[in-house]
Amino acid sequence: MDSQTKAVESTKNYLTTAASIVGSAMLAHTIVKDYLPKELRTIIFSAFHYSFGRFSTEHTIVIKEAEDLSSNELYDASSTYLQTRISSNIRRLRASKNKEKKSITLSLDDGEELIDDFQGVKYKWQLKIPKENHGSNHGRHYGGNPGWDFSSNREVRWFKVTFHKKYKDVTVDSYLPHILEKAKEIKAADRRLKLYMNHNDGWKAIDLQHPATFETLAMEADLKKTILEDLTRFIQRKEYYKKIGKAWKRGYLLFGPPGTGKSTLIGAMANYLKFDIYDLNLGEVRMNSGLNRLLVGMKNKSLLVIEDIDCSIDFKNRNKDKKNESNKSHNDEISLSGLLNFIDGLWSTSGEERIIVFTTNYKEKLDPALLRPGRMDMHIHMGYCGPNSFRVLVSNYHAWHDEHPMFEEIESLLKEVKATPAEVAEQLMRSDTIDVALEGLLQLLQGKRNKGQGKKGNGEDDKDEKLVRVENEEERLESSAEDHETEEVL
Ligand SMILES: Nc1ncnc2c1ncn2[C@@H]1O[C@H](COP(=O)(O)OP(=O)(O)OP(=O)(O)O)[C@@H](O)[C@H]1O
């Protein structure tokens, strides 16, 4: 036999052997599939995986959509988090968009794999969707399926996360908490904010489309910075409020003439914090019981706004309310005490962050009880337009950030006469050409001066916006916590 014939023979033998192995494997597969019951097959495969897994360096965590009939927050968070880790090499994705979201969401489809990197550790994620997820689970059974939920006796969606087993602690202590935290941020950023208004003791919501931001808010830079820092500190202090056993809430009283930006500041706060606004019209609420229902019905991460508080309730009736306390059952009418008690009491049990904002054009008309330390944490005076606020408005309406020959005269007039940011904004909007708009504003301000109208004096409203009082909430709470401790020791 020459060498060429030998080679042909050996190839033939090789192919015959390979065919026989494949044939045997197929036969074995057919026998296993056709003759062994499903349960037995699952046990054999599980045993195989178990023995194999003992020598593997991999560790796997299963995150099911539901555990014991309740939804699994970690599954939900993983789903949200992974949407931001989608890469172009994933072949099949799912796309969705619902009313609550601003953008289209791309997510993993059944069986697709995604690799995530966290602090240098590689995580392989896979989503498993039950085959009959859209139909009933009738006739399906556990069969060793990690996605099986015993409480509901059905298969649920689940994620499989695989990583090197030496990173088990890092995964549980850092990676999974990181996912929960990130998911919260992603959801907050993608959520459409809502504006709720009360009607018949219930809330009705529309999408909040207030364009205001702290950047476009015309206000002294220092005050703006203080408010921003205060809000940021507040939302980061969950543990602190929990520790001292106080409601996680913060109150702001905004006061100043109409058109000075109280509503604009509220819009900027909501957009900054990504909080919904609950605009409570007390004129619509007749009884304390109705007010209770409304306050209980508020979701967390919300900003409760009560505008024109001086006109909303006859606060001077507060003492009368006290006298009438004995025949309270006959008098469930809404009162200042009802409102304040609720705000202080109810939220202390919710453990979630809430902000309350009162606005008024006439601070002096308010009941001193509302101004008392501890009621409102910050009193913010929204004043007439000063030179700084004017510059912000010019940049808002004309994207103009440089000097302009007319600025000097306008700014000196703004120090002299009363013009609200709303009036200034209105003039600036009248023309797209900055020279024309500034000319109109100049004429308005000169007119005010010549008529002797709107002259700035020494009154509170005549000053530019400022922080009247920031109560040091931290110290107050800490000292009240200490008092509490002392009482207990005694
Ligand atoms: N400080 C500000 N920064 C930016 N824009 C402002 C400011 N103040 C007023 N404006 C402009 O004027 C309009 C009216 O202002 P806004 O409603 O915020 O005033 P207000 O103090 O809430 O008035 P009111 O007391 O009548 O409710 C706003 O829509 C905005 O365009």
From TrEMBL:
Residues 457-483 have a biased composition (Basic and acidic residues). It comes from the Eukaryota. One of its GO terms (molecular function) is ATP binding. GO terms for biological process: response to stress. Pfam families: AAA, AAA_assoc, AAA_lid_At3g28540. Keywords: ATP-binding, Magnesium, Nucleotide-binding. Residues 448-490 are annotated as: Disordered. Residues 248-386 form the AAA+ ATPase domain. Its cofactor is Mg(2+). It catalyses: ATP + H2O = ADP + phosphate + H(+). Belongs to the AAA ATPase family. BCS1 subfamily. This is AAA+ ATPase domain-containing protein. It comes from Dendrobium chrysotoxum (Orchid). The lineage of its organism: Eukaryota, Viridiplantae, Streptophyta, Embryophyta, Tracheophyta.
